[in-house]
Amino acid sequence: MNLEDIIQAVNENRIRITDHADEEAHSDHLNFDDIVTSISKGVIIEEYLKDKPFPSCLVYGQNVKGEPIHSVWAYNKENKWAVLITVYRPDPERWISWKIRRSKNDAIP
Fold this sequence. Notes:
Blueprint: H1 3-11, E1 15-17, H2 19-27, H3 32-40, E2 43-48, E3 56-62, E4 68-76, E5 81-88, E6 95-96, E7 100-101
Parallel strand pairs: 1-5
Antiparallel strand pairs: 2-3, 3-4, 4-5, 6-7
């Protein structure tokens, strides 16, 4: 996947936000600016190439306050639209440096 394609789609307002993503953003007090900022300098940390109907990816980024944000995006290459599937503030008990999933055996420092 290419994060630049997703960023371009967002910048050109070719985006769909799922109800789930909207609910998660609201519950984590994330606004659209937070999400856009987080992907603008974000990195893909996981890819889900077999997802249907379109491949998707997990993006780690930060808002302007430097707070970590994870967002899952699908991208339709045919019509060049991005879909925000979900977005959330990652739980430090589940992530190492916000980029690597902790295993059940990983101790929290």
